[in-house]
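User: Please predict the structure of the protein below. I'd like the answer in structure-token form so I can feed it into my own downstream comparison script.

Assistant: Understood. Taking the following sequence of 89 residues as input:
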Amino acid sequence: MVVEFETDLIRFRKREGMKVARAKGHLRDKQPKLSRRQETHLVSLLASGEYSTAEVAELFGLGRSTIYRAIERQREHARVIEIAANSSD
């Protein structure tokens, strides 16, 4: 029971410490592997039909799952732009 209590205290202190560090700017999230420009280029290569997903992944030095996430982000970005354009009408 004492061990559980100490473990909970350690977890609590660690979470609090990370909140403080994040607020001070010492902790950053994971940096993206691709810039927005690279993502756009990647998707355009796939859309052209000249390259497969595996070929683009090898070309950029990424995993296929990263390629699929980039495609999905581009689709979501296009949807947001379309919704914004339609709502301004």
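That's the full token string. Residues 1-31 form one domain.
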